[in-house]
Amino acid sequence: MVKMTALYRQPADVEGFMDHYYNVHLPIIRRLPGLLRMELGKVFTFTGDTPVQFLQADMYFADRDSLLAALKSEPGRESGRDAQRFAGEYVQVYFSDVEVEDFA
Fold this sequence. Notes:
By secondary structure, the chain is an alpha+beta fold.
C-alpha cells in the first residue's frame, strides 16, 4: 500500500480555505481512480503551541502504479491544478510506502 500525504500550513483565511477544501477540492479527490481510503486530520499539539501544519490529508492506494495512474488521470490533473490555485503557497505533498498492523 502507498500513501500520498498533503500537509497544509494555516492560511490567513481559514474559513474560506476550508469552504473551498470541502466543497471544491474534496469532490475532485473522491473521483481519483484507485483511491482506497482518505483520512483528513486537523493538526494540534498538547502544549498549546500553534503547530506548523494545520491540516493533513492522507490518500491511500494499493501500490505505486495505482497512485501514478490516479495522478495522471483527469481528476488527478484537476486536483493538482486546484491545489495550486487555492493552496499552492500552503501545501507540501509527500509519498510513503505503508506497512499496516491492526491491533483491534
